[in-house]
Each structure stands twice: as structure tokens, then as C-alpha cells.
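Task: complex structure prediction.
Instruction: return C-alpha cells for all chains below.
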Amino acid sequence: MTETFVFPANNESAEKCAEMIKNGGLVAIPTETVYGLGANGLDEEAVLKIFLAKGRPQDNPLILHLADADEIEKYCCDVPETAKKLAQHFWPGPLTMVLKAKDIVPKCTTAGLDTVAVRCPDCDVTRKLISLAGVPVAAPSANTSGRPSPTSAAHVIEDMTGKIEAIIDNGPCTVGVESTIIDLSGDKPRLLRPGGLPLEDIEAIIGDVVKDKAVKGEVKDDEIVRAPGMKYRHYAPKAPVTVVTGKPEDTGRYILENCGANTGIICFDEYAHMFDDCTVKCLGKVADSGEHARRIFEILRAFDGTDVIKIIAQCPEDKGLDSAVVNRLKKAAGFTVIKV
Ligand code: TXA
Ligand code: MG
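Output:
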């Protein structure tokens, strides 16, 4: 067991934690999206500790967090104009770009791929830490593998106490869902994960982006998909989740007709009054996608430890920032989706 310190977000903490990172330690870092579990991304041994602390399969690569866009060229080669443009527009911010990796990036970080994911987080204390450490910080979300991503220091404490050296507490994350991932290493820009930066904003700068098959499958609305088992269930509460898509008035009615004792409900604020007898968690108002994003992971964690045995969720419309929320809900449901 390691003693895990919880530090406030200030320069002194950035200095202390930069030392820990330089010495091969693990530190949970705040970002605008979710908290990350950081280590020196150039140090194989340190990176290995991330996989152990999370219980993450080693074939799942990590994102390198940079203090500044200028650092892209240190770790990536053949950087296309599109990447430079996107960095200029959206960094620091919730955008991750997959680019061709230079040899300096260890295979442990990229899980053996010849590409590397890079991002510059919009969080002062974390960028300060990275620049003081003088190395890129490899960081996946700071949750135990399979659990909802952490959007507060309390969530990180829940999952990581005793496994890491320190947590910098910067309060709740302002975006609340992970970064949008765009692969720019191939012929065409490709969306690998919808996230905190809406795809529409990216397309306004670089034109059409191909949605990767996996993303399309996850967000497809016109079929009921039931995953065979736990394999595809991520971000998952302990109770099984069903996602209901359609107009809010229709999904609200469907849920009312199909809930019972010990049902947990995820719904928009406007519909909460309908479910007096159930455990209700509100996503925010129908039109408030920012609030949906900030609340989704907290909500997915909140049912654990209650007497809820099944969860039904009202699904936002699949556009803008809500596309990320829809994706996380469907993943939490293992793609158990009902269209009404
Ligand atoms: O907002 C975020 O992106 C947060 C914060 C901490 O920065 N990080 C995060 O990391 O969500 P993680 O590891 O939970 O998710 C990163 C995703 C994984 O699905 C991984 O497979 C993918 O990025 N990824 C990383 N490197 C890749 C690469 N070279 N090619 C394709 N996918 C990659
Ligand atoms: Mg993650």
C-alpha cells in the first residue's frame, strides 16, 4: 500500500507532483474532461504502473498529455496541416489527436502501435506540472478499468487510494466527459471517440470527418443491439442499464410504464416528477447538453451502494456535446437500447 496524498490545486502541488512524476511515480491529475492517472510517458516502468493500478489490459494505448502545442513535434512525425490547425483552434482543450509516433515514445505507452495519441489539457495546474516535470505525462482516466470515469477527486479517492502517490484536487471537472479523439495518421481524419469537443466544431475547421465503425455502431439508433455479455460494457454501474431513445415525451412515458420497485431512473429535470416512487438521478434540462456531460459519470457511479437492481435512462439526442453523453450511456448499457 502506498500512502496517497490529496493536494490542493496550486503551484506548490504542481512542483511536488512534478517531482513524483520525474521519480517514476503515479499522480492523479485534474483536467477539464475527467481526472487522469499520470506517469512519465517516456518511462516504460512508470507507464507499466498505470496499467497495474487501473487493472487495464496492456493492449489499450495511453494519451500523452503535453504542456503546449509546440511539443507535438517532439513526439510525433509527419504531422499534417490539419493537426496543426486543430491544435491552434482547440488546444488547450478536450481534443486528442492520433498521429505517427517518433521512436522516443515507448511501445508500452502506445501499446505497440506506430501512432501515439496526444492532447493538451485545459487545466493550469496540470499544464504547470507537465512543464515542470519536463516530460509528457501519459494518462488514462483515473478510474479502475470498466468503472465510470472520475469527474471529482472523491471519485479518484474511491478507486485509487493506496495505489498512487498523490491526487491533485481541482474540484469537479468543467466538461465532464473525456476528450474527442480524432485519428489524423491515415488518409482521412477519422473520429475514434465522441467527446468533450463536438464533432461539428471540428468539421467546421477541417471538413468532413469519417466516423470509425465502432463509433457508428455505438451511436446507431435504428436497431436494438444486445451485447453478448460483459465484454463491451464500460463505464458501468453494478446494476444493468437500459437506454431509451426517442422524443423526451415518448421516452418519459415508456419509462413510466416499465419501471417498478428498485428501478433507478436517469432522466431530464423536466420529467423527474413522474417517477416519485423510484430512485431518480437528473441529467439536467433537456436542452442543457453541458449539464448532461458534467453529470453523466457522477450519476453512473451514484447508483452503486443503493438498492437499485436495474437502471433505465432517458437518452439525449445524438448531436453536439450530447453525442458523447449518448455514447457513454450506451456503453454503460452494453448497447441495450430501446427505441420508442
Ligand atoms: O479526456 C481524456 O481523454 C482523458 C483525460 C485524462 O485526458 N483521458 C482518457 O484516457 O480518456 P483513456 O485512456 O481512458 O482513453 C483513451 C482512449 C482509449 O480508448 C485508447 O484506446 C485510445 O484513447 N487511444 C490511445 N492511443 C491511441 C492510438 N495510438 N490509436 C488509437 N487509439 C488510441
Ligand atoms: Mg478511460
